[in-house]
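Researcher: We plan to redesign the surface later, but first we want a full-length starting point. Tokens attached.
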């Protein structure tokens, strides 16, 4: 995944592009580059490293001009180095491209262009795009037509922004990867995501697959297959630019953890009509599948318990990437509920597309308005969590739990009861964080050198153990695994020895049985950290979390999110940008 941006207006493009690309760093940060069209033509600056590093070396803001493109890369084709960084230029240096996605047939195109005398200097798939555009222009096409023809030929999923030196215009196009158009007063923005330009405008057009936007003095959007102009709705975004800034916090991760008192409440503020419509789909279905990846998958696992307990309903939970294997159980009576923060995760998109091919009904629970998932599903419930910038999902997880809880209660006509429960729980978040913050800093200091860590929980706390392990490992790089309490003894107990930390996620409902499992690990020397509403003499370290009954998973995850954050700090790691990870995974 990469972040791409384009600007055409009257201000200094390099300043706007630099700010924009900084806000897209969550999409990838191994290299960065910018191209601005100035008086002497297109000038490109690019290099390996994150935005601050490369900017300190290259001074992007020295570029003069009011039209340009920029890119923050997360390598897929071609190693991380200066040459492979974007933007990429055509052989005649007049066409410049930034790209997110994969050109699947680039080898074939490259061979074709090499036979026509074109040279390639990078290992990327992207470089075929500016050169193909140049090829068509050399053969008499206009820039617009050359782009159109190129887009029809390239295969794969992509979002591109293409700038022409001779025409002084930029074109943005997409198929499968996100691209949004921002409309200001006398200026236009193209970006992979709205926060890139939300400081400048709140007017947004979501481009659909196979559309391209031409930005000159005005903007026009066309279908690049048919050439027909599309007149699209302008959306007003409903969150402020401030929400996409760190504000008083040192990191987005901490900010987003702290926002949960508000975001859980917002997630519960759904229109009754929408929830009723979704409930009808659930109750009318013969077979409900919940699909997601990573943290969103854990929210689905949690929901399966909540549906079972509250609605007495069985729902199937599947990793989105495994969904296709259940083909024989899909029909027009099946409902597939896709849960995703970004709405762009390739495995989720694939599962939903597959479901649609089989005639299934589709419902999404999603955070990013206008994302691919929202356009695929027939009904969408927004999580209303606001932009989540840290690579780790924190507030989006509790929002997903909140929406899924609403749906489970609504399935038995108890929407109001669920809303009250969630609002009560949301009201406890700030006190919880204030009460446990110092203890978690202390605990992180104790745990920062351990190699392995285990989390156990039964019943509703089991998915929280899975999610807690994911949080800890992805940001602190400590090996962490979550288990159902009883499961540890079926093998993994062999790893428990003196001092190995085990986090026990305990609730009133699970206490009697979990205590057995805690005693088992204690007998092997484990250092037991209890996350519980009541202390227990078995705990070597205790974190008190108020009991919340069916909403226990919502509160229980917060101490682990904070612990993961403080572990990253204790190990001198950047919690917002863990190694090898990007915010949404747009490849299968
Ligand atoms: C973990 C994390 C990932 C995502 C997963 C799905 O902190 O962020 O595991 O949950 O990549 O992403 P979405 O929810 O955008 O589909």
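Model: Full-length starting sequence:
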């Amino acid at each position: 995944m990469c972040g791409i941006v384009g600007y055409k207006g009257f201000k200094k493009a390099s300043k706007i592009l630099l700010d924009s690309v900084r806000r897209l760093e969550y999409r990838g940060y191994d290299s960065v580059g910018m191209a601005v069209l100035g008086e002497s033509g297109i000038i490109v600056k690019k290099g390996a490293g994150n935005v601050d590093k490369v900017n300190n070396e290259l001074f992007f803001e020295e570029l003069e001009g009011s039209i340009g493109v920029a890119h923050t890369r997360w390598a897929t084709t071609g190693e991380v180095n200066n040459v492979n960084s974007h933007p990429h230029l055509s052989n005649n240096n007049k066409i410049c491209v930034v790209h997110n996605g994969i050109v699947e047939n680039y080898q074939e195109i490259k061979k074709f262009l090499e036979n026509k005398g074109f040279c390639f200097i990078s290992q990327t798939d992207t470089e075929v795009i500016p050169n193909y555009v140049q090829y068509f222009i050399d053969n008499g096409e206009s820039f617009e037509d050359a782009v159109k023809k190129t887009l029809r030929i390239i295969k794969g999923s992509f979002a591109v922004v293409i700038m022409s030196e001779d025409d002084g215009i930029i074109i943005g196009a997409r198929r499968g990867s996100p691209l949004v158009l921002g409309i200001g007063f006398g200026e236009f923005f193209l970006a992979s995501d709205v926060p890139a330009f939300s400081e400048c405008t709140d007017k947004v057009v979501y481009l659909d697959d196979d559309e391209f936007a031409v930005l000159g003095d005005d903007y026009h959007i066309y279908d690049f297959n048919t050439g027909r102009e599309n007149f699209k709705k302008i959306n007003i975004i409903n969150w402020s630019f401030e929400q996409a800034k760190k504000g008083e916090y040192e990191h987005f991760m901490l900010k987003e953890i702290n926002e949960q008192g508000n975001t859980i409440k917002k997630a519960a503020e759904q229109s009754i009509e929408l929830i009723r419509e979704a409930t009808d789909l659930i109750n009318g279905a013969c077979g409900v599948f919940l699909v997601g990846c990573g943290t969103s998958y854990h929210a689905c696992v949690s929901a399966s318990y909540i549906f079972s307990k509250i609605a007495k309903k069985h729902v199937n939970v599947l990793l989105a990437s495994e969904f296709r294997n259940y083909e024989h159980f899909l029909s027009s009576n099946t409902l597939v509920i896709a849960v995703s923060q970004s709405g762009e995760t390739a495995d989720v998109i694939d599962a939903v597309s597959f479901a649609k091919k089989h005639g299934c009904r589709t419902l999404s629970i999603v955070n990013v308005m206008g994302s691919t998932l929202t356009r695929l599903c027939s009904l969408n419930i927004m999580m209303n969590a606001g932009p989540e910038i840290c690579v780790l999902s924190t507030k989006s997880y509790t929002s997903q739990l909140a929406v899924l809880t609403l749906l489970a209660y609504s399935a038995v006509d108890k929407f109001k009861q669920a809303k009250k429960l969630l609002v009560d729980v949301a009201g406890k978040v700030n006190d919880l964080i204030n009460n446990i913050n110092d203890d978690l800093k202390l605990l992180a200091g104790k745990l920062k050198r351990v190699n392995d860590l285990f989390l156990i929980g039964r019943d509703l706390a089991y998915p929280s153990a899975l999610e807690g392990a994911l949080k800890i490992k992805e940001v602190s790089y400590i090996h962490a695994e979550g288990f159902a309490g009883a499961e540890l003894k079926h093998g993994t107990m062999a790893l428990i020895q003196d001092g190995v930390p085990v986090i026990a996620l305990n609730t009133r409902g699970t206490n009697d049985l979990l205590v057995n499992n805690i005693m088992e690990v204690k007998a092997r020397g484990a250092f037991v950290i209890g996350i519980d509403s009541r202390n227990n003499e078995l705990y070597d370290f205790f974190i008190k979390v108020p009991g919340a009954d069916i909403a226990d998973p919502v509160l229980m995850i917060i101490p682990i999110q904070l612990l993961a954050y403080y572990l990253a700090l204790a190990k001198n790691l950047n919690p917002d940008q863990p190694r090898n990870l990007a915010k949404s995974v747009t490849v299968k």
